[in-house]
Amino acid sequence: MPDRYLSFTGTAPGRFLTRRLGLPQPAALRRWSPQRPALDGDAVLHLTAGESTAPATGSPCAVVLDATGVRDVDGLTGVHAALHPVVRSVAASGRVIVLGAPLDPDDHHQAAAQQALEGFTRSLGKEIGRGRTVNLVRLTDRAAAETTLRFLLSPRSAYVSGQVIEVGRAPAVSVDPDRPFAGRTALVTGAARGIGAAVAETLARDGARVVVLDVPQTERDARALAERLDGIALALDITAPDAGARIADALPDGLDVLVHNAGVTRDRRLVNMPAGRWSSVLDVNLASVLRTTDALLAAKAVNDGGRIVATASIAGLAGNAGQTNYGASKAGVVGLVRSLAPRALAEHGVTVNAVAPGFIETAMTAAIPLLIREAGRRMNSLAQGGLPVDVAETTAWLAHPASGAVNGQVVRVCGQSLLGA
Ligand code: NAI
């Protein structure tokens, strides 16, 4: 379902009219393409909170503010002083990245100041406009944050804003930057269409051998995609009790990336919801994720250095009327990720993270009634829906072989949705 309002506001009369009426002004986002792989604008501006900043000359494509040393309220003055003179000049679809430090449990002044950076980041994200995004990265080890910063400083993160991402430590892993997944196998569930298909395409673009898993009814589409990507199709209902064993059998060399993307909605308010609608959603979106993850880890089918990326939703974080089943299932995914991540890393060398998409333009959201769909699209800082590729690029960053320091994170791909913000 094309976003006609976005196209309209991209024209001069559309811009004029919508501005006069005080309507949202979404900017066409700059996404990654082989022809234009980098952000538009001048070089990245690196600043440090507390050091004086000269007004920017030109239009930096991004500003990275090092606020890791901020330990008290006075230090926050340095955040204002550093960004105030330059924020206006950041190019359209540019980035502001704030680097923070973990909260110190023994120093409540430091913790207050570092927590303040979250409110700052989220507030700036809501006001900055022109397709620009603002995110906070809490660093423990700067070198381990390289893939994260590279992702955020690229057009691949176009629809990720208002996020707080914690990056720990991990040994360095070197890979071909253009094909980081070369020699690796990635299985994506629910990959015949929508977000899953975009994830499969993106991982294949970056060198992975992809396994396109979907229900047997979609086999034609799954096969066509797998053929195009030089991968393989696996017709399997992920709710089958032996799904994990069948995946392990199909991939005797194991897999390196497991993307739990398959998901369904069966919306109805709780008062009208029969048990079957409840359990079918819980089964696809949560129980099968738990079952297959357990089975594959127990069978050692996820290789050392592997990555698991599960798909949550902002409905699981904020709740949504008519979606008690779906919201419960997606919140369950968040719980799974937070609990399993440290153990999976310690016991299997595998990271576990989640993406939480907001309003993404797919068949799932095309089925939403017009007025609710239009509201859903605009209720975020970027005033538009995301595209499947936005979730796919985020998944590819989390699944990157060198992203071992990113673990247990739930990253929203929602244009900083106002829901549950
Ligand atoms: P979609 O409905 O377009 O595609 C889902 C795919 O999963 C389909 O190909 C379907 O056949 C497959 N699938 C369903 N049940 C399955 C099963 N039992 N076994 C194997 N495959 C199965 O959905 P979309 O929009 O691409 O969503 C993908 C994921 O992202 C889902 O988990 C969804 O909940 C989540 N999500 C989507 C959002 C959106 O705005 N589109 C927002 C938030 C989350």
Order of helices and strands: HHEEHEHEHEEHEHEHEHEHHEHHHE
Distinct small-molecule ligands in the complex: 1,4-dihydronicotinamide adenine dinucleotide
CATH architecture of the largest domain: 3-Layer(aba) Sandwich
* Integer tally of domains: 2
Percent helix = 25-40%
Main CATH class of the largest domain:
Alpha Beta
Number of strands: 12
The CATH homologous superfamily of the largest domain: NAD(P)-binding Rossmann-like Domain
Which shape, going by the Cα principal axes? globular
Radius of gyration (CA) equals 21 Å
Q: What order do the strands of the largest sheet run in, or round the barrel if closed?
A: 8-7-6-9-10-11-12
What's the total helix number?
14
Percent strand equals 15-25%
